[in-house]
Predict the structure.
Amino acid sequence: MGFQGIGASVRRKEDVRFLSGKGNYTDDINRPGQLYAYIKRSDRPHAKINGINVAAASAAPGVVRVFVGGDMAAEGIGGLPCGWQIHSKDGSPMAEPPHPVIAVGKVRHVGDPVAVVIAESKQEAKDAAELIEVDYTDLPAVANLTDAVAAGAPEVHDGVAGNICYDWVIGDKAVVDGVFASAAKIVKLDLTNNRLVPNAMEPRAAIGDFDTSSGDFTLYTTSQNPHVIRLLMGAFVLHIPENKLRVVAPDVGGGFGSKIYHYAEEAIVTWAAGKVRRPVKWTAERSESFMSDAHGRDHVSTAEMALDNEGHFLGLRITTLANMGAYLSTFAPCVPTYLYATLLAGVYKTPVIYCNVKAVFTNTVPVDAYRGAGRPEATYLLERLVDVIAHDTGIDKVELRRKNFIPADAFPYQTPVALQYDSGDYQTTLKVALKTADWDGFEARRTAAKANGKLRGIGISTYLEACGIAPSAVVGSLGARAGLYEVAEIRVHPTGSVTVFTGTHSHGQGHETTLAQLVVSQLGVPFDQVEVVHGDTAKIPFGMGTYGSRSLAVGGSAMVKAMDKVIAKGKKIAAHLMEASVEDIEFKDNTFTVAGTDKSKTLTDISLAAYVPHNYPIEELEPGLDETAFYDPKNFTFPGGCHIAEVEIDPETGVVEMVNFTAVDDVGRVVNPMIVEGQVQGGVAQGIGQALLESAIYDPSGQLLSGSYMDYTMPRADNIPPMSVATENTMCTHNPLGSKGCGEVGAIGSPPAVINAVVDALKDYGVRHLDMPATGSKLWSIIQAARPRMAAE
Amino acid sequence: MPQVTLTVNGKQHTVEVEGRTLLVELLREKLGLTGTHIGCDTSQCGACVVHVDGISVKSCTQLALQADGANVTTIEGLAAADGTLHPMQEMFREHHALQCGFCTPGMVMSAIDLVQSHPEGLSEKEIREGLEGNLCRCTGYHNIVKAIAAAHPLMHAKAAE
Ligand code: FES
Ligand code: FES
C-alpha cells in the first residue's frame, strides 16, 4: 500500500464509484411523487411582454400547474441577488437592476425564463410549453461591447444610462500619464478576450422537495457551494429560514465556476415544490445550458506599456470594457475588477499601473467567473503585450521577460495594484520550462517543418495568479457581501477512524482523496479509515464552497487547524491516562508519547477514552473527540509559472496543430502530484480551447449563434497535444500547508502561450497580433491576404 | 403503449415505452441504470455510449424500440460479479483518466470498443482520433489516452487466454 500521506500519488477513492456507474449526480436522483419542470424561455433578445396565454398549456395532458413571473411577484418574490458591489470612480454604487427569477414585463436575453410548466412527465411538460403563447413587442437589442457603449445604443435596462453598470479605476492616472509623457517608447495593443461557454459535461439540474409534515424544503442542485445557495435563495429570494431549508449538492459533473451562482431554476423548483406540495425536478438540456449558464470572459481592452531604452517596463495603462450580459450574475462585478485589474502587475516589477474598467450591460446571457475568472484576461493581455513589445523593439522575448521579472529575493513584494505577493521564483520556472521544451533547439524544428511545408511557431507565457480567496475583511472592504473563510470538522470516532466534514465541494478535484491524505499525514490515521463528506448543508457547518482554487489553501488549512485542536485535546486526555503533564506529551504517527519514556497511547486509545469517559478528566474536559475550525486566510496565494506552446500551421488550410505543450507551475505544497498534474492538464486543454476553437457568438441583434455543440467547438482529444506538466514549487508563507492552488493555472497560463506561438509561426506574414480563437479560416485568410505582398517582396 | 424486450447486462426486461422514447431514457428512467449519462441534445458528447450487441452506440441516437431483441451492456455491467473491474476501468483509475466522472461511463464504453476493434494495436494518434465522439471537459484527454494505451495489451492478453 505504501505511503499515502501528503506528497503521494494516491489513486482516488471516488473512482470505483464513478467507473462503475454508481455516481450520484442530481439527475440520477428521483424523489417519490416527483413532477417535472420545463422552462419556457425567451427566443427574443429584447422584448416587451404584452401578455402570456397559458390556458392551453394548463389544460394539456399531465400538466399540474403553469407559473409565470407575475405569480412569483404576487407573492413578494423579488429577484436574484448579486453578491458583490463595486463602486464607480465617482463613488457611486454600481447599477444593480432587478433580475427577476421569471421575467416580468420584459425579456432581456435569449434564454430568459418566461414561464414554467409543472407536469407528471418531462415530455408532457415540454409538450405543454409549446402551447404557451407569449405576445411580445420586440425592442432594439445590443449584444457586443462596442455597440453597447456607442452613443444612442439601445438600453438594456431603463435608467441605466449608456448601459454602464460601473466605471471603475485602480491606480493614479496622473502619475501614470506622467510616466508615459517622458517614456522613451510606448507600445500599444488593442485586444479582445473571447466569450466562452463553460460547458461542464453535466448539464445543470435541480430538484425541489417539500416535506408536508415538517414544512421543510430540500433543494438538490448541481452546485459548487451549497451553503452559499442556501443563504442566497433562502434569505434573499424565497424567504425560507435556513433552519427550514437544506441544500444538497451531490456528485457534480464539473463546474469550472459555472455552478457557483444562484440560478433561477433553483428558486423555481423549490418554490414550485411548495406550491404543488410534491417534488419538482428540472434538468437542463444542453441547448438550455448554452443560453442560461453564466458565460465567461468577453473583454475588449486597450493596453499600453511605457518603456525605457533598454526595455524596462515603466508604466502600464489599460482601459477595458467588460460584458456583464443582461443581468448581474452572483459574483460578476468582482471578476473584471478585483480578480482582473489587481493582477496586472503579473510577474513584472512595473512600478505604476492604471486601469479603467467599464462593466457593460448587453442583451446576452449573464457573464460571470469561468475557470480563472479575470486572471486569464489579465494574463492574456500582459503576455500578449510583452510579446508585442518584443516584436516592436526587437528585444528577445525571453530576455525581455527576464529583465522585468520580480526577483526571487524581493518577496514579500508589494505591487502597485493592491496585492502583496508572498513567494515565487519566476526565473526558475522559466528556466526549467525552457529546458523541458528545448527552446534552444526550436529553430532547427522550425526549419524541418518548413521543409514539410508547415509553419512552426513557439510561444511562451510567464504568468501569475491570485487564488485561495480570500481574507474576509479585505474582500468585504472591496465590496463582497460574503466572508470567504472555510470550515472543517474532524470527527474522530470512538474506535479511531475519522470523518472529515468540509465546506469545500468536490466536482472533479478529488477531495475525497486529497483531504484524506491530510489526515493520514497529520493524525497518522490509515487512508482507508478516513471518509470525506461534503455537499450537504444538513451535515456540514457553514462552508463557502469550491472556486478560485481555494479548497486546499483555505479548506485544507481549516482541516489543519481542526486537527491541531484534536491533537491538543488528545494530549490532555493522554496526560491524564499516563499520569504525566500535558507539556510532556508528544504526538506523532498516531501515537501520544510521554517525552523521554516508552509510555504511549494510540489515537484510538484516546478517542475510546473520550467517548467512554470512565477514567477521564471530566471536570476539565468535555467528552468526545470532534473538533471544528473556521479558517480565514491571511492573504491570497500566488501560484505562477511558465507555459510554452509549440504549434504547426498548415498554410494551405490555416489549421493549427498543437505539437507540444510544456507547463512548469509553482503551486506551493503538493498533496497529490497525480491530481495536480490532472488539474493542470485539464486547465491547459480549456486554455487551448479558448485560444484555438471556442467562441460564443451573438449576431448583432442578440441571437446566440453558437447555441449547441454543432456550432460551439469544444476541444476534442485530437485537438490537444500530449503535455509535459511539472511543478517547481515555493511555499505559500501564510497558510499552514504552504499550498497555493492548482485548479486554474492551466487555463490562465496557456491561452497567451498558444497565441504567441501562432503569431510566431506567422511572423513572415506580417502578423503582429490576432484575436482568439485562432481558427483555421481566420489564419487561412491572413495567409491568403499576405501572399501577394510576400510574392512581391 | 408499445413494448420492447431487451437484455441489459445479462438480464432480460420487457418494458412499455412511448414511440419517441430514446434508448438512453429507457436505461436511465425505466431501468434505473443511471450510470449512462446525458450530456447533450445533439448527439455529440458521447456521455451516453453503451454497447448494443457488442458495438458502441450513442444511446441518445437510438429509439428504445430499435433495441428490441438487442443485447445491451452499460457501464454497470462491466465489472465481474465479484466486483473485479474490467481492465479498462482499472486503467482509467490507475492513470487518473477521470475527474468529475460524468463523461467517464461513455468514455470507457467507447474506449473498450476502440480497443476491441483494433487488436493489431493503436497509436496515440489513433486513440485520439478514435475518441472524436466523446467530450471530456475535465481531464484534457492526456490521461484518458494513456489509460487506453495501457488497457490495450491487458484486454488482448485476456482475450487470448
Ligand atoms: S447525450 Fe448522447 S451524445 Fe450527448
Ligand atoms: S471527467 Fe469530467 S467531463 Fe470527463
